[in-house]
């Protein structure tokens, strides 16, 4: 499903329920030592999806551990992103020459709690949401906005190694299935080794609604030309 909003150079694997053959590899087991069983199965299935996606790139299966701020640690010369929500788990990966960073997110198509919405949405974003809701009331635009912000952060962090607050990205969702995130962070400098000369002022992505889910994705192409931004 999520492959519809990702370019073909990105390998994808997804599951709509936890898989009985999903196992945790050494190192991953320690990461889940305090998890309840439901969370452990979810974690295992998401890692299983990641290994399937990496396998399609010709990369042997191995543990996918956590690094700084819990970001997944990918095999050398690969990039990727993981997501999970009720009824859905997915991984998207690519060779580093094909993509500098990937951010994906999945959420249920359900309203956000009001207090959460107010804490993550700028006034400009809330205004746009009201307009979009008039066009398509069956889409929960507040939840879609949250998903897009999560995808932005997942794409941002590997390039900068710094936190990005919800208020530091002004996201414009569009009816055509695209969105733009204007980055409001004061420092747009890439981290050493990010492979990009500067962080662009905006990230561009795509979204999809279906099967009770809201999916968002951002891919920054593996090229030194920072104009090469794509969600598809």
Return the CATH class.
Alpha Beta
Q: Provide the low-confidence segments as ranges.
A: 224-232
Separation of the first and last Cα atoms = 13 Å
**Class by SSE composition:** alpha+beta
**Count of discrete structural domains:** 1
- The backbone outline, from C-alpha atoms, is globular
Number of strands: 9
How many whole angstroms does the radius of gyration measure? 17 Å
For the biggest sheet, the summary is:
6 strands, antiparallel
Strand fraction equals 25-35%
InterPro entries: 4-PPantetheinyl_Trfase_dom, 4-PPantetheinyl_Trfase_dom_sf, 4PPT_N, Enbac_synth_compD-like
Protein name: 4'-phosphopantetheinyl transferase
Pfam family, one: ACPS
GO molecular function: transferase activity
């Amino acid at each position: 499903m999520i492959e519809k909003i990702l370019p073909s150079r990105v390998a994808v694997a997804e599951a709509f329920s936890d898989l009985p053959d999903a196992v945790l590899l050494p190192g991953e087991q320690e990461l889940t030592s305090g998890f309840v069983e439901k969370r452990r199965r979810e974690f295992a299935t998401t890692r299983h999806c990641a290994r399937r996606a990496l396998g399609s790139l010709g990369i042997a299966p191995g543990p996918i551990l956590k690094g700084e701020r819990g970001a997944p640690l990918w095999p050398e010369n690969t990039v990727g992103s993981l997501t999970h929500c009720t009824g859905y788990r997915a991984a998207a990966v690519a060779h580093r020459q094909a993509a500098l960073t990937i951010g994906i997110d999945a959420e249920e198509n359900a309203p956000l709690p009001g207090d959460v919405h107010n804490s993550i949405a700028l006034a400009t974003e809330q205004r746009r949401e009201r307009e979009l809701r008039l066009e398509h009331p069956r889409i929960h635009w507040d939840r879609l906005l949250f998903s897009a912000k999560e995808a932005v952060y997942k794409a941002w962090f590997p390039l900068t190694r710094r936190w990005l607050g919800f208020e530091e990205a002004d996201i414009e969702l569009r009816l055509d299935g695209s969105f733009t995130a204007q980055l409001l962070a004061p420092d747009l400098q890439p981290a050493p080794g990010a492979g990009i000369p500067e962080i662009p002022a905006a990230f561009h992505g795509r979204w999809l609604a279906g099967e009770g889910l809201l999916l968002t994705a951002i891919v920054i192409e593996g090229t030194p030309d920072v104009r090469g931004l794509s969600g598809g």
